[in-house]
Amino acid sequence: MGWLDKVKVRLGIVDAEDVEEEDEPRAELRVNPTNREDRPPLDDVRAAPKESIEDALAAREAGNLTEMRRLLREMDRGQGLRLVLRAAAALEAKDERELGELMPRLHKEEQLWRLLLQIAAALDEEDGRAAALRARAAKLGAPAWALAWCEAMAANPETRRRGMVALLFQDAALARTVAARDWALTGAEIDAAATKRYTGFVHGRDSIRRFGATLVAELVERIA
How many domains does the chain have? Predict the structure, then answer.
């Protein structure tokens, strides 16, 4: 029984008796880490920032909120996750001056739907807030595969099931990766075609969860 059949059985789409066992395992797609053909020439590579979101989150977890905010200010490039976390830190500190400076930029965030879905996936409780964030992301034009991914990450089992069913149809490669990484389904393997997409979303989700998803949700609820 392949991973897809196992997912269908787990989701109740088919009965286990109706699925035939595979005679041979599928070939695993391997990536050669030494292959540098797709890497840009050194002249085109921008220098990596000295600090990372990981550094800011580590400072937060150590209780050094002042250092965390300093790092987030230095890393802020005007959009995306760094901007959102910096604004959430200002909200937490009740720093209305800095928050007032950042809110206009948050209103112009081009991929707000992406951040909304990452926040929804980071929430530990399915209390209506996550559903509201997903609905708002849909109105902002979030693609169907991203909405399905978010539901597959939900705390509520029924929402997770619905999300995985949708993801199987919208993006089978991403569904395979979610089945392997998040559902830990035996026989499921990470799909190289979906790795970049998966990693980008999950990094945001995990960073928001470590920072405090409820606080970040309160921030984006201020954005019209």
Answer: 1
